[in-house]
Every structure is written in C-alpha cells, then in structure tokens.
Amino acid sequence: MTEHPSLSIETFIDPMFQENCYLLSCADHPEAWIIDPGFAPTPEHAIAYLREKNLQPAAIVLTHCHVDHIAGVQALRDAFPALPIWCPAGEEHMLPDPQANLSAAMGLPVTAPEPDRLIEPDDELTLGALQWQALDVRGHSPGGRAYYCAEANVVITGDALFAGSIGRTDFPGSSHDELIANIRQHLLALPDETTAYSGHGPPTTIGTERVSNPFL
Question: Considering the entire predicted model, what is its pTM?
C-alpha cells in the first residue's frame, strides 16, 4: 500500500498483462474505488482486500476499456451487484463488444455490463473527502481518461503515460498525435511533484517524465 495525504492506494497486478488495478480509499471514510480491474486473480484480490479492511466499494472507475483493464469488471459486479461502473464517454460500446475491446483478437472474448455513468473531460468526482478531476488523455484509446486529485498530489493515468514511455497508438481508435497533445496539455500541466500511477509498470512523477521521457 502507498500512502498519500488522506489517500491510500493498494495495487493488484494482473500476471497475464502486468496491468495495474488500483484500489483507492480515504482516511476516515469507508468508500473505495476499484480502478481498471484486470484478469484473475486481480478481482478476487480486490474483493478480499475490501472485506478485510471493511471498505465499501463505491464504484468501478475505468480509465479506458481495453480488455486488460476491464476483464475483472464482471467478477466485481457479481460480488457486489449494486456496484456502479464509471466508463469514459465514447468507450461505452467497448464493454459488451469483444471485437471493440480487443479481447476477440486474443481468443479470450471478454464482456462487461453496461456503464452506470459516462465520464466526460473535466467531470468532478468525489471519493470520501477528496475531489478528483477527469482529464482528457485520448490517443491510446478513443476516450481515455486520467483522474487527478490535487489535494493528494496523485494522477491515475491509465495507459496514456508510463514511467519512461507512453501508450501504444497502433490500436483501432488510437492516434499518436492526439495522445502526445493530450499528455502535454493535460498531464504535463500538473505540478512536478504529482505522482503518476500508470496502467502498467511503476509509479513515476510528472516532473520526472517532463524532463526524461524520451517520447515527450
């Protein structure tokens, strides 16, 4: 677990794709978000953690809807039938469609339930006492979102920005130029000390990526 001011982040790594699922919770509040639940055993670990810590899941929050970031959604919904799914606007069609979410091409057709909320750029989200802002990071996927909390100095970047790299742009609906423009406009505009939690790999900081990421 990583601790930030008023925020705890637990990471569960999918062994198939090395995808990071994050479980976010706030001090003195029972609610938690599950961000980008991947393949088993990620959802099972998240469920066990929620129950061990007596946390109430408030939402499944998706940065984008590629298969490795949504594979655990159905298992979480099975465990918590009322748990809402928050999906980037423009990617809702990918949840029930294995072709669109890229799982069909791998011979692992994955589907997920329809979303309960569509997240637009600049939407304000609340977890406990913390306010978050949805940022437009389209380019790796057609509607990618990052989630930024100024109070905790944290941004969840999905597959837009990694430590030393950026997201692939050779998928349907991807755009290299759009991704670079959105990273520069919406992620590199954040304070240097902001910790960035990516969809794969270790955390980094915006300041580090600003000066050393070879793609930027």
Answer: 0.97
Q: What is the pLDDT along the chain (216 residues), one digit of tens a residue?
A: 676 778 999 999 999 999 999 999 998 899 999 999 999 999 999 999 999 999 999 999 999 999 999 999 999 999 999 999 999 999 999 999 999 999 999 898 999 999 999 999 999 999 999 999 999 999 999 999 999 999 999 999 999 999 999 999 999 999 999 999 999 999 999 999 999 999 999 999 999 999 999 999
Scan for tokens 């088993």, then name that residue: 40
Give the CATH fold of the 2-212 domain.
Metallo-beta-lactamase; Chain A (3.60.15)
Domain residue spans of the chain: 2-212
Of 69, 58, 123, 59, the closest CA to residue 91 belongs to 69
10 Å Cβ neighbour count for 143?
Answer: 24
**Could you tell me if 176 and 182 are in contact, meaning their C-beta atoms sit under 8 angstroms apart?**
no
- Alpha helix (H) residue ranges in the chain: 42-52, 67-70, 73-79, 176-182, 206-212
